[in-house]
């Protein structure tokens, strides 16, 4: 089999792997994608491939300057990606939505065409059988998570991120929910997290998640007015705003929004910023979150209750613990001890933040 000299690895953030030599050659695994040989497909699709990366939902072919992403044929979050028209619509949505904050990164959708006797070709004549999102590769050294780890994050970088996010979170019109429906969504996410962590987690996680979930549920019941008041502020946001999705380039770019679910993107701007701040704090930059929230408050005249802010932090941490546990179902793509360690870390943050939220409410009510 011709392999084009490729490396096949697991990774979640393919668009940024340019000039990143960390771990090169490591994590090489058998090439598979719904029964297709990934390297063989890659050689058909592109003549020169530097690397092939598998993510949870996609396979990505990397060249020197570009990345081409194709969706796996699977069921995910109730969406049937085995259907060709669903994959085409998702690819078009991925480009459209991510161009809101990374216009020059997402270059378009390219068909993978089939001609009898000629086989597959990228963008050529024939019947389209699949579609790939074409992207410009970003330098790994410019990503926010890398800058934090390397202790290179400057005040100017923080100000640029805060300015871009404040402008973006102000631009889209609110697409709020009925307050009771919003509260029901919060309750549903908590119940799902408790159930999945209890089902797949280690004994210590199963022992603790129930009490943590009960505290979140009680907070929602007791502070329904505080939380429900935010329902009118929801916007079509990013949905997965983490430091590894922020590129400190010129111009600044934010990638990998949750293109497949409008419901998961419907977020409170404060929730988006609190989530990014939490993830930055986990990497060693606890000052990023307060800076982002301060800039947003000044730009948008939104000064939420402190108890709300810490609730949002804990709520997102609980969901991240659930996602870490869900990776145990990934057929060996994720090491079980790593998944459990991440889940414990996030669950600890969730427990701490809900305690802070309860404390802040008590102080305010005195």
Describe the structure.
With 366 residues, the protein is an alpha+beta fold. It folds into 2 domains: 8-138, no CATH class; 144-365, Aminoglycoside 3'-phosphotransferase, Chain: A, domain 2 (Alpha-Beta Complex), CATH 3.90.1200. Helix content is 48%, strand content 15%. A hairpin with a 5-residue loop joins strand 11 (246-247) and strand 12. The longest helix is centred in the C-terminal third of the chain and has 30 residues, at 336-365. The chain is globular and about 75 Å long. The model is unreliable at 1-14 and 17-37 (pLDDT under 50).
Strand arrangement, major sheet: 1-2-3-4-9-7-8
Uncertain runs: 1-14, 17-37
CATH class of the largest domain: Alpha Beta
* C-alpha-based Rg, rounded: 21 Å
Oligomeric composition of the shown chains: single chain
CATH overall fold name of the largest domain? Aminoglycoside 3'-phosphotransferase, Chain: A, domain 2
> Number of helical runs?
12
**Count of all domains:** 2
Give the integer mean of the pLDDT values.
84
**Biggest pleated sheet:** 7 strands, mixed
CATH architect. name of the largest domain: Alpha-Beta Complex
